[in-house]
Design goal:
Helix content: under 10%
Mean pLDDT: 90
Number of strands: 9
CATH class: Mainly Beta
Order of helices and strands: EEEEEEEEE
CATH topology: Jelly Rolls
CATH architecture: Sandwich
Number of domains: 1
Strand content: over 45%
Length: about 150
C-alpha cells in the first residue's frame, strides 16, 4: 500500500496488472497432445518479478485427468507451473472443473513476454476443452510484484 505523498510509477505498484486476457468461448477439443488454450503478453522490465495468474475451467470425460501448465513463450517453453485435474462428472458442459493457477517470473530483459496455458489429457483419451462463456469467462493476467 503506498504511503501518503509517495510518488508512484506505472508498472511499479505491487499488485498492478500489466496485461490481462479474458476468454469468453470454449477452446477447441484436445486429447493427449498438448494444446495452447490461453495466452497473455505483457511488457516486462529486466530484474522485476511478476506474478502470472490464471483461472481455468475444463470439461472432459468422467475419471480422466487433464494436465495443465503455465509455460513461457509457447509449447516447448520453460514450465513455470503445472497441475493435474481429475474430471469427476461426465458431460460437464454446464459447470466443468475449475482451478486457479499461479507462477512467478523474473524478467531477464526488457521485452514483451508471452505466457501460455497448455492442456492435455494425461489419463484417458478425451476429448476435453477449456470451458468459457461471456458470463463465465476464464482469465489470465500478469501483475507486477517487486524489483
Amino acid at each position: 500500500m503506498p504511503l501518503a505523498g509517495q510518488i508512484l510509477q506505472a508498472g511499479r505498484i505491487p499488485g498492478e496488472r500489466i496485461a490481462t486476457t479474458r476468454v469468453t468461448s470454449n477452446s477447441g477439443d484436445f486429447t493427449t497432445s498438448q494444446a495452447v488454450v490461453m495466452s497473455v503478453t505483457g511488457p516486462l522490465v529486466a530484474g522485476r518479478t511478476y506474478g502470472i495468474h490464471a483461472f481455468v475451467r475444463f470439461s472432459g470425460v468422467d475419471n480422466e485427468d487433464i494436465g495443465v501448465r503455465i509455460l513461457e513463450d509457447g509449447i516447448g517453453g520453460s514450465q513455470l507451473q503445472s497441475l493435474a485435474m481429475e474430471m469427476s462428472v461426465d458431460d460437464q458442459e454446464t459447470w466443468g472443473e475449475s482451478r486457479w493457477m499461479y507462477a512467478e517470473y523474473t524478467a531477464p530483459a526488457n521485452e514483451d513476454k508471452t505466457f501460455v496455458i497448455t492442456a492435455q489429457v494425461i489419463a484417458g483419451s478425451g476429448p476435453a476443452r477449456l470451458l468459457a462463456t461471456a458470463s463465465r469467462p476464464c482469465y489470465m493476467y500478469i501483475e507486477y510484484i517487486e524489483g
